[in-house]
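Task: fold both queries, return tokens.
Query 1:
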Amino acid sequence: MTEMAHGTVPPPRTDPLLPRWWRTVDRWSLACAVLLLGIGLLLGFAASPPLAERNGLDPFHYVERQAFFGMLGVIAMVICSMLSPTGVRRMGVVGFLIMAVALALLPIFGTNFGKGAVRWYSLGFGSFQPSEFLKPMFVVLCGWMMAAALQVGGPPGRVLSFVVAVVIVGMLALQPDFGQASLIVFAWGVMYFVAGAPVLLLAMVAGLVVAAGVFAYSASDHFARRIDGYLSAEIDPTTQIGYASNAIREGGIFGVGLGEGEVKQSLPDAHTDFIIAVAAEEYGLILVLCILALYAVITLTALVRLLRERDPFVRYAGTGLAAILGMQALVNIGVAARLLPTKGMTLPFVSYGGSSVIAAGITVGMLLALTRTRPQGRMADFLAKARG
């Protein structure tokens, strides 16, 4: 009778997934990530042919592989950006467990590819570096733990996140991979600071990091050589830092021209860790500043959007993802400019490597998912209502 009198109630209409995603996602950051991938391919055309020739491969072998990795990275970024915060959390927790096991098994099944650190699994057709994928998963897991600590009767999430960070840093240091370990510590520290950690506690953690660095310097010849090379007043021109520093000086403001650079002939890692040296030599300071600006847009836009968030998990995890992406870019460029010790760290989206590009896509995809526009009041209004 009710249906006869009033008619059936139509089901609520929902927007299709793609239009809703496009309307709510941070399109500026998405465009910046795609531009960085394009710059990586452009630099790959300049940096990788000499390496391909030395290895007896087609001149653009590495460019073709990077284009394939870039396509996978874009797909991963778009798919991750469509997730809800709950979906991001579930993906982060499950992904962390898988990558932590993979990291723990590296000493048994991993390889170093002659680079002195066991960081990769050899898959025959390629390689896989668990630490690259572990970073965004770690950030999401810790964000969930810290947010859970705010609930009444919730677990001691901050303490648990600290324990997890210590365990992961210990496993990375054993490879050794002090660069990735420092990123983990930095991301955790930024998230803990946003979560309201006492300054004294953060100072104590900083002291522990310094003490760990001193111990690593005395116990690891690999670590000590890199620190000594960084502190040395003179640069050995036959080292990677020497070649990179010379390339940056030669490039100047406008560069020496496309294909005219020489550093790609000398640097074995010109297409990976020192790709910024190729950019500085051939395209000059102009391109380097453009690359820095693209990372700044992604990082700062995300942080501004996160200021409006009321969900603690979104704030903590989003801040950690933005921090880890921006800091990795700064460390890579700082190493090439000899502002930091050599770390063996890739430039997200730009450096060659499947693990690096796909993991960067996942990182930015998760960040885009957490910063999507959602119906909620402004954070300032929420705080004002809470005080009133």
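Query 1 returned. Query 2:
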Amino acid sequence: MKKIIFATGNQGKLREIRAILKDADVEVLSMKEAGFDGDIEENGTTFEENALIKARTIAAVTGLPTLADDSGLEIDYLNGEPGIYSARYLGEDTPHSVKNPNLISRLAGVPDEQRTARFVCAVAAVFPDGTGNPGNIEKCVRATMEGRIAYEEAGENGFGYDPIFYLPEYGCTNAQLTPEQKNAISHRGKALRAMCEELKAAGLI
């Protein structure tokens, strides 16, 4: 079984990723499990650039194939905020117990049809060539999940912005879906499955 690192320290993401890739013949390691505990400066201007920065960095240090994602929430009424700054919205370590009510308050009085939003996920893959170079095989895919910003938080599942992301077709928030339901329709699930197909087609996994 091939080992692939997923460049994240977020345990919620890691659980989702392992569940989504459970049928692929790969062992998914976290950065910590691969022996990397440094910080990576995500100074890209797009989700794709940030995902590639993380994947290139980990692949160069470990010499192992690396997947990385960069994801976030785009709210149309707020001109796409928080976007690529979703993890750093209101500060590096600000909890979602502060972030989520803040976003709801910024949309106070805004009607349903103007509360449109989406989760975006870019997944990058870097397969090192064994010479110490950052990687000679790089791929990147993007996927989205459309919804609206809820009027209040709801749900205990998921993490991050899930409790305020309302899915009209399901009549609930992301955090009210089961993990299996969420993985089937989420931006990250779509992007990872698309990446998995790309890597299989290229004979990389």
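Both queries returned. Flag for query 2: The mean pLDDT is 90.
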